[in-house]
User: Fold these one by one.
Assistant:
Number 1:
Amino acid sequence: MRTLTALLPALLPGIVGLAAAARGVDVFAALTDGARRGLELMGRILPSLAVLLPAVYMLRASGALEAFTALCTPLLEHLGIPVETVPLMLLRPLSGSAALAAGGELMAAFGPDSAVGRTAAVMLGSTETTFYVLSVYFGAAGVKKIRHAAAAALCADAAGFLAAAWCVRLLR
């Protein structure tokens, strides 16, 4: 078993090296070209991230989440979505780490086996960090007009939030 474990780290580079040699590819040149392209991509993505992440933290610190929760409470109760998940639903399209922190807070406050905790977990697993994905992938591809993609992605997130709450209630 130890011999197999010792051979595994050499297996992948060995296979790649053999494939490159068979095709006549200069591995070092390919690696440096990939690194150069990766740095160029990071240069295009970094400005979006530099704006997005502080905006998320300002939203949480400003008290806007609490005000929006109070505004949405009647609708969410009617739809069967736990009101306590509003911060998670607002943060999830913006930032995965902020949404994960909100989900962790919900599970710490209500317990992971509670309806709120389960709903938060399913919401985290069934939705995406929409604006992060749009900024990173569309920025990398050089796409500037994301209006329709953003609307479609936000509709998908809303459907995911609603389906998560309904599935948790159904399977309780």
Number 2:
Amino acid sequence: MELIEYVDSDIMMVDVANRVAGELEQALFHEDTVTLAVPGGTTPGPIFDSLCAADLPWNRVNVMLTDERWVPESSERSNTRLLRERLFTGRAGEARLLPLYSEAATPEEKLAELSAQIAPNLPLSVCVLGMGEDMHTASIFPEADRLNEALNGDAILYPMRAPGAPEPRITLSAKVLRGALSCHVVIIGEAKRDALERAVSLSPDEAPIAAVLDEATVHWAEA
């Protein structure tokens, strides 16, 4: 694990966006298309605001979420909605979205369909992850109902239900996340720094983020 510390989160977000753009550009030198996986939630918004202006052939870039709440895009809790508002604008508007939601009552009903769309676009070229204070990443939560499968299984996607998560989730598996050619973990605040330091000495069952830390670059700012 490489740890990069920043004086503030604004500088961090611009730097991460520049690194991601540079890695995508490098990958495009020898691949017809590349795949970028990004988190939802509030943290990555400023990264998207910078990345969307990058001078890339975005029509050759697939973008997908690392996980999604099982809610329609019209919901304020939809991570896909965040992508459309903050990343799929400007130059990045030409990118192709690989969806993690399709209209159905449960993620299980659409798992095979969504996985089939993702499979030809793996491995991930670049993956950006967040981490919760409980040391979850994507929607691989401690105490989740399918934690062991998501950490150790061979599938691309897993449905996930966890204590404290108000709706079902769908998440990329740890296998897919670990397979990314480049992985960045972005965290802010002392509480998450403390969680990160605990995670390095815990098993993925206790700290799911530990499943990806060996090959990751972690970016941290205090505020």
